[in-house]
Amino acid sequence: MIDLASGGALEAAAWKIKNLEDFEAMLERAARKSDEQSRAHETAALVVYESALMKSGRPANEVRELVSRFKQTFEDEEEALTIPRVSGIMNVEGVEWFFGDESLRTLTGQLLGQFQHRVAQYNYIDEREVLRRWANGYDTRLFIRRRIHETEPIVGVVEGFDLRLMQYLRVAAGGDTVVPGPEISRVLGSLDVLNANARDDDYAILGAAESLALHLEIPAPIVGEILVELAARENLEFPEPPPDATEAETTDAAAAGDEIGEGGTDRESVKPSPDERAKREATRREPDRGDEPTRVQDPQAKDAPGTREEDGGERTAPSPPETGPADAPGQEGKETSS
C-alpha cells in the first residue's frame, strides 16, 4: 500500500519533522486539538451523524455547528442520545437537520442502523466503545489495506460512503489513523515519502502517513494534525539530516527489521554476529566433534560401521552371545549330566 521513494525515506522524514525549530510547539498544538475533538465526540450516535453530514462537502466547522444544535435541542437528562433514540428523532424531524438534503437523511439512517446492529452483537458494552473497537479493529484495517473498503461489512456497504468519509468516522470514533487528503499528500511528497505517481492515491497517502506516525512514535491523529498545519505554510522547508545520522538511523531500522521479521512479530530471524557465524562455520567443518547428526545403527547388523570410543579408538560391533542346550526354554534349574 505504501509507495516509498527510497528504502530510508520514512526514517529521514521522521528526522526532518523532529528537527523542525518549532516542532515541540507544533506537537503541543496538535495534541491539544486532537484532545478537544476526542472530548467533543463522546456520543456515538452524534459521531455517526457528523460523519454522514461531511458528505455534504461543507466545512467541518459548519457541520459541527449543526451537530451541536441538534444535541442542544434534543438532549435530555433522563434519556441519553443513544443510537436508537437519535434514529427515531431523525425519522420524524425535517430535512433542516441535514442541510435540506434528503439523501443525507437516508445516509445517516443507514449508518445508524448498521451500528445499531453492531452494538446488539455485544453485551454490556457502551456504544462509544463499540465504535472505537470497530475503528481500530483488525478486520476494518484489513479491508482498507487490501483496497476493498467498499466491502467492509459495517459502513463500507453503505452506498456513497467513500474512503475519506470512512476515515473521518474512524478518527472521530477514536481510531489511530488519519484522513487522507491533498494537504497531507503535499507534505508527504515534500518529505520524499511518496513517489509522484502515488500522491493522488488515497490508499498510498493513508499508508505512508500511518507508517510515518509509527516512526515518529506519535499517535496517527496527532501526526495528521501536524501534517495539515505544515501544509498551510507558504514555504515548506525541512532541515536536511547529516549523512552519518541518516545512515545510522537507516542501519538501526534495518537491524530492527531483521529482528522483528517480515511478519512484524517473528523474532526468530535475528542475524548472528560475525563471531557467532565463524563459530558455526568451524563447527560444520569438524564433524568428529559430535555436532553432526548421526543415524541410529543396529549393533547386530553385519555391515554396521564401528562407533568411535572416547579415546579415539574404534569399537567393533558386539557379537551375539553363545548359547547351548542349557539355555533352551524349560531347562532352567536342571543340572547338565556329564
Give the spatial strand order of the biggest sheet: 1-2
Low-confidence spans: pLDDT under 50, at least 5 residues?
Answer: 1-6, 253-271, 287-299, 307-311, 332-338
Protein structure class: mainly alpha
* Number of beta-strand segments: 2
Q: How is the main sheet built?
A: 2 strands, antiparallel
Count the DSSP helices: 14
Task: Describe this structure as you would to a colleague.
The protein is mainly α and 338 residues long. It contains 14 helices and two strands. A hairpin with a 5-residue loop joins strand 1 and strand 2 (314-315). The chain is elongated and about 70 Å long.
Question: What's the layout of helices and strands?
Answer:
Elements: H1 9-18, H2 23-40, H3 44-53, H4 60-74, H5 83-92, H6 102-120, H7 127-136, H8 138-145, H9 163-172, H10 182-190, H11 202-216, H12 220-231, H13 243-260, H14 274-284, E1 307-308, E2 314-315
